Amino acid sequence: MSYVDGFVVAVPRENIDAYKKFSTFAGSLWKEYGALEFVECIGDDVPYGELTSFPRAVQAKEDEVVVLSWITYRSRQERDDINAKVMADPRLKGDQWQMPFDGKRMIYGGFETLLKL
After folding, report:
1. InterPro entries attached here (predicted)?
2. Partners of 73 in the beta sheet?
3. Are 33 and 85 in contact (CB under 8 A)?
4. 3-state class of 19 per DSSP?
5. Predicted confidence band at 42 (pLDDT cuts at 50, 70, 90)?
6. Which of the 8 DSSP states describes residue 100?
7. Which member of 64, 106, 107, 117 has the greatest number of CB atoms within 10 A?
8. Which pTM does this prediction carry?
9. Is the CATH code 3.30.390.10 the one for domain 3-94+106-112?
């Protein structure tokens, strides 16, 4: 079964266009190196929970929106290989790409697919 990297970030609303531009570029690199899918979803119905929630998890502020993202791969090994190539790609280096969100509040992890209907 496939392997998935998942991400949740809080993006300032004023940076949504910059985030989309960066993600479009980054996604093209992941796809170029073999990722099956690169998906970015902007929060539309993401309530602030009493105990836990997406906004709480990333310490979202009033002027931020929660973004849920994932990248799919054929396997964990392919994911590791692809990520190594992307991180070494010189097109990601330099000052032209500044993170349009606070990376310290990003949540991410790798997941084995349990069920896909």
Report:
1. Dimeric_a/b-barrel (IPR011008), DUF1428 (IPR009874)
2. 3
3. yes
4. helix
5. very high
6. S
7. 64
8. 0.93
9. no
